[in-house]
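Dear support,

We are seeing what looks like truncated structure output for some complexes. This example has two components. We would appreciate it if you could run it in full and send us the complete token output so we can diff it against ours.
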Amino acid sequence: MNICRTKVQLKHAVKEAKQQGKSIGFVPTMGYLHEGHGSLLRAAREDNDVVVLSIFVNPMQFGPNEDLDKYPRDEQRDLALAADCKADIVFIPTVEEMYPTKPLTSIKVADVTERLCGASRPGHFDGVGLVVSKLFHLVEPNSAYFGLKDAQQVAVIEQMVHDLDMNVKIVPCPIVREPDGLALSSRNVYLSALHRSEATVLSASLNELAEVLMFNGEMTAEQCINLIKDRITENTSGEIDYVELLQYPSLTPVSPKLSLQRALSGSRFIVALAVKFGSTRLIDNALFQVEEVIERV
Amino acid sequence: MNICRTKVQLKHAVKEAKQQGKSIGFVPTMGYLHEGHGSLLRAAREDNDVVVLSIFVNPMQFGPNEDLDKYPRDEQRDLALAADCKADIVFIPTVEEMYPTKPLTSIKVADVTERLCGASRPGHFDGVGLVVSKLFHLVEPNSAYFGLKDAQQVAVIEQMVHDLDMNVKIVPCPIVREPDGLALSSRNVYLSALHRSEATVLSASLNELAEVLMFNGEMTAEQCINLIKDRITENTSGEIDYVELLQYPSLTPVSPKLSLQRALSGSRFIVALAVKFGSTRLIDNALFQVEEVIERV
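Here is the complete output from our reference environment:
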């Protein structure tokens, strides 16, 4: 496994792979890897000749009061998981290597960043767009793999790639969960035992909503949102940041009175939530497709 | 010469060249080509295996009251000049091909866009950044060639390429002039006979300034600017948009009282001007390097 700490090393390794006509699959991460990242690496391994993993806690996507400094890091464990998943190249730059000078260039994606985490974390997706754009230019991947836990991130990156004619295929991958349903996240490590047990409400409430939508009678968007909010506030100490139901991937609002069962066939919706347990903010979501019946996708 | 009107055709041609290990030199233009563009194509021809020319009048870089609709176009003449200069691939997309949907992604370069044409033409360089970024992703050039008549554009693109780690070398090329000194521009065709003759004041005043700076006594930044402004207002009907003296390529201001002869050795300055003759806005500039003496570069 080729560990590159500088852009020059990485570009050299990429050039060699390209010259041999090899396809490159890319998994950009902030490290502290878990089985969610593992599933991305395995998908990349399956599809490509060369797998590149990047590990970089990108300061540009953290707000001034967010958890940049205490974001968990464990390089040795990350490298072991990367090796397990048969990554070929691991790019681990320092902040100075990625940003040798203060960047004057900014990338903004309108509309799709207006709600959900874009509203709660101003500037977050500008930082994501900038670093992903830099990494795409450095790695020149054929395909890049992103987890659907960050469904809005996937939508933002797909829009950016489309608008800028970037020559990379974005591959969204399913959320990976603990046996009790909690979506894997590097931030789960922050949770106290109580909060860890309460945090199952996120996936449990999404599952309950899915059951109701798929097998029971009509529900409006507002009723869907209220069902989830009620479960969280009734059963846990979690503080709701947002629970929203939007069209996907445009992330445009729907009328609160819209009956999902009566939405246009082919419509896709996301139910997305962000909830704080103590100082730890967790997100989760479910995607639904309306056909003759509503399916979870 | 391979004429591509769609992105798919272009990407196919680029892929073929890449697979053969060929280097690509790229000249992005808005068409209505003149010898300025010719010099870029010849520079690209000299350095590369494959030369790609793009011709696209990009609506995103024109303001609402600018000359988008009447911007001159002559595809047949452009293709003849491209063939003369031995271009291999010419990309001529429609607006719908370049922007099939309204782009939600915007690219802004701070600081370097604040003055000169960035101040006179709000949004202009956002449009330039967007289209150049799209074209770089489509053409994947090793090198891209830009004329120094648009010195601010060169500075903006160099900053963007640096900040986004784009894998392309930017090659700035000298201004090409008519025998009487007027910088070549597609917009020169708009000038009346009187304005055409008056417009030589731009290069003449820059030349006079260069003589004074290189061979005569000390001058402050303010005196340099006033010399040029005086020549324009004394001798022509031209309406000054701006005359500025800035550091290059940062385009940061200098003190009006700065004596150029006493500036730090190695400093680079640009004297840039924009003047309207009738409804036609022309730009020109000169670059100076301070060593033991001041040199025009």
